Amino acid sequence: MKVKLLILVLVAIALAAGGVQLARRVDRPDVKAAELAAAITRAQSSLPKFRARLEHPEPGDEGFFIRVRFSNEGKAAEYLWMSRARTAGEGFKAILAEPPFFRKDIQKGDELTVKTADVVDWTIRRRGGTPEGNFTQGLEPHG
Questions:
Q1: CA–CA separation, 143 vs 140, rounded Å?
Q2: What residues pair up with 78 in beta bridges, in sequence order?
Q3: What is the band of 76 on the pLDDT scale with cuts at 50, 70, 90?
Q4: How do the domains of the chain map onto residue ranges?
Q5: Which of 28, 81, 84, 142 has its CA 20 to 30 A from that of 12?
Q6: Would you say 118 and 69 are in contact if contact means Cβ atoms under 8 Å apart?
Q7: What is the DSSP string of 7-65?
Q8: pLDDT in tens, 29-46
């Protein structure tokens, strides 16, 4: 009986230690930053595909969104989603879909033109709600 209890305690300690190590790895800012940077690279490299779909939507394409990095005069940048995206010259025009935290010169509902270089993600909502793109989902860049 004591041996079984000792084994259970040792197994519990080992599992707890492994869980702590996993939690440290997942919550480490450098790991999240690397994952976010990779997701942004994938999104930006596929922007030509997104632009082509904006210009020639496929059947079932219902909504076009972009996530844009807004700088804030040397302070933390904000990453905000914009809806009803469309092409505008070399960039995009869309409606700010969420309120900024830092920037006071823009607000939810504003129609803005943004540079392609500032787009960090894109999403196409398909009929039935299935998203395409959305590379940064779960990585949530907050500045």
A1: 9
A2: 70
A3: confident
A4: 46-133
A5: 28
A6: yes
A7: HHHHHHHHHHHHHHHHHHHHH-HHHHHHHHHHHHHHHHHTHHHHHHHHHSPPTTEEEEE
A8: 566 888 989 999 999 999
